[in-house]
User: Fold this.
Amino acid sequence: MRIIAGRFRGANLYGPSNAKIRPTSDKARETLFNIIGPRIYDSRFLDLFAGTGAVGLEAISRGAKIAIFIDSKNVDIIRKNADKLKLVEPADYTIIKSDAIQAMESFITINKKFDIVFADPPWDAGLEKRTVETAQALLNENGVLILEAFHKTLPPKAAPQLALVKSRKSGEAVFHFYERD
Assistant:
């Protein structure tokens, strides 16, 4: 695993020490960031079910203002990768050890908003629909929610304030892109 582009391009990241972590592949991350392109610059980025933190770290490398990482277990590897890139907490990033749904609900209560929300729930947990429904309240006016899922998983119906605008397959993964109506 490595950073694909931006100021940390080519930096190797620590991989998962747990076989249950399924990091977004370099190729899939490249596809993802080619699609969101200039939207990433100066954005507030939320990485849900963050695992190794590779997606949020790629966002910072490509110009995101800040990334917030939420994971219920793997905060040590995220911190180790952020330290390797010499990022400073909380100026560049924040790591929160929490269930992703609970973290989103707490952000809703304090009206915390993001430009980009990336969610990669465990593929066997059935959290896609609930993630989309909850994340809609976290998006700024022109925000985008990106849900990574197993390529055979149908995209959840859009929540009332969101529209599914595209889906893009990359290997075993598919990215579903939702935007605010």
